[in-house]
Design a protein that fits this description.
Layout (H helix, E strand, L loop, with lengths): L1 E4 L4 H12 L4 E5 L6 H10 L4 H5 L3 E4 L5 H8 L4 E4 L11 H21 L4 E5 L13 E2 L13 H18 L3 E7 L1 E3 L9 H8 L4 E3 L2 E6 H12 L6 E5 L2 E4 H12 L6 E3 L1 H18 L7 H6 L5 E2 L2 H7 L6 H15 L3
Parallel strand pairs: 1-2, 1-4, 2-3, 4-5, 5-7, 6-14, 7-11, 8-10, 9-13
Antiparallel strand pairs: 10-12
Helix pairs in contact: 1-2, 1-8, 4-5, 5-6, 7-9, 9-13
Length: 338
């Protein structure tokens, strides 16, 4: 039996499809209020003829990483765990919840895995948990965490979750850790990178001046499964397809959707104005900010990530980002109602 956390997210849904298609028995821990509609749409997108039969093979269990009783029940009889659950937010108001979910929740899962003699765990972390580079450096797996005022609350929480997994490895739990760059793929457009596509469809006319890494969600799921089925253990791997600018990505997405690409560069000054105005909007209108000080700070950085280690370890070839964008656009054109 395999346990997956975060199975209702983009990465989790693709991972479920890969595992179920390979004949694995899969249990998914989900919160009681989480819905599975987008997961079923992902299954239908790739497997239109037999998606219902495959989807019905998933064992869904309600629980929470911080509900120790439900967590212990979910881990019983499990040999492998894929830990994809995390709260992703750049809103300062979510700092405490990120700590509880991402750090304390991971600690609880590791403890349950140790107690139930789980054989191996794959922790899906993030490039956010790696140290920020100096100018001209390319980030690789040797970049260890450095305390910095530029570290986001989300990055701090993911680094904390990694420490819990490394602690588990020291106590006898075999593990592999992946640090994906920004993941592109079909899924709920109101979450993660899906918001890029959503905002462009709604007429976003600004682009950031920074550069970062992007990767196809199918590659992330595939690499995770290959690592878990290998003898590799107690190592981390950056999962990055290409390093491209936000402008280039936004242009690719806009062209694929048949809309005009953003025309105006959101530089540092405009970014500083934007997050302040958005904070005022939230004060008067309520809701969470769409643009925060953290987001405005890092979207104009030039950061490049190496994928050499995973390419060497698995002789892996990544899907071009053009294909990832095309796949996502096709999915949204079918399933997303603006």
């Amino acid at each position: 039996m395999i346990l997956v956390t975060g199975g209702t997210g983009m990465t989790g849904s693709h991972l479920l499809l890969e595992l179920i298609s390979a004949g694995e028995k899969v249990r998914v821990l989900k919160r009681e209020y989480s819905t599975t509609g987008w997961v079923e749409k992902v299954f239908e997108w790739y497997r239109p003829d037999d998606h219902k039969a495959l989807f019905d093979k998933i064992e869904w269990v309600d629980g929470d990483l911080n509900d120790l009783l439900s967590l212990r029940e979910a881990v019983k009889g499990v040999k492998k765990i894929y830990h994809c659950a995390a709260l992703v937010s750049y809103a300062p108001s979510d700092k405490a919840e990120m700590k509880k979910t991402n750090i304390e929740g991971t600690a609880n899962l590791v403890n349950a895995a140790l107690y139930e003699n789980v054989e191996k765990i794959c922790h899906c972390s993030s490039i956010a948990a790696l140290s920020l580079p100096e100018k001209g450096e390319v980030v690789n797996e040797s970049f260890f965490w450095k305390t910095s005022r530029d570290n986001t609350y989300y990055a701090i929480s993911k680094f904390g979750s990694e420490r819990e997994v490394w602690r588990g490895s020291e106590e006898g739990l075999d593990m592999v850790m992946v640090n994906p760059s920004i993941i592109i793929g079909p899924g709920d457009p109101s979450r993660s990178s899906g918001m890029i596509f959503k905002f462009l469809l709604k007429g976003l006319n600004l682009y950031a001046s920074g550069t970062t890494g992007f990767v196809d969600v199918r590659d992330v799921a595939d690499v995770m499964v290959k690592l878990m089925n290998s003898d590799i253990k107690n190592e981390r791997f950056i999962i990055n397809g290409e390093n491209i600018s936000y402008k280039e990505l936004f242009t690719k997405v806009a062209n694929c959707l048949g809309i005009s690409p953003p025309k105006y560069r959101a530089g540092k000054v405009l970014g500083e104005i934007a997050w302040r105005l958005d904070r005022l909007r939230c004060l008067f209108a309520g809701g969470k900010p769409l643009v925060t000080k953290e987001i405005a700070g890092f979207i104009n950085r030039q950061i490049f990530y190496s994928n050499q280690k995973i390419r060497n370890a698995l002789n892996y070839r990544f899907t071009p980002i053009d294909d990832a964008v095309s796949n996502t656009c096709g999915f949204l054109k079918r399933y997303y109602d603006k």
